[in-house]
# Entry
Amino acid sequence: METLFFRDLIHILNWIKSNRPIKIALAGSSGVGKSALGGKINESYQEIHHIEWDLYKHLKPCMVSSLNIEICLSTLLNDHRIEFILDIPGDTIFKQNKFNQDRLKIFLNEKQKYGFSVLLLHADKNTVRRRYLSSIKGGTPVCFEIDWNNWENFEKPFWEKCADYLIDTTYIDLCEVNS
# Structure
């Protein structure tokens, strides 16, 4: 996994633009900035489809309780094979008390099949807490601590095995208007 450092959102967008075709999955904890970054990429490059997994969680193959990674990714990506940004919530694929090793193998196979890179976003805990509490509907400090601990202990170690790039969003204003 390669760690990338950017000074601001514009530098991230320029780096992404230089790596076309764009086939990227954004992963990271709740509040780290996946949806904000995906939205900014989509604003800058409207021909790229921004696919938010959260919007498909009601479909049986994409539900956390009955997740079928192969069918879910097929549902999400088959119409958008040319260029896409897939926003994957950190707690969707890897969970406490789940078959994470099996899920890791399946996800890595699907990653290769669709030819996408995984950008793992991270930020320091205080930054993520601030973003989480201001952007997650119903997000409370107690919910944040539970989500953060699950991320650190169960989800992050597996996402690190999937990631091609690590991007620290701590000092990046993901709400910049001019991209």
In short: The chain is about 45% helix and 15% strand.
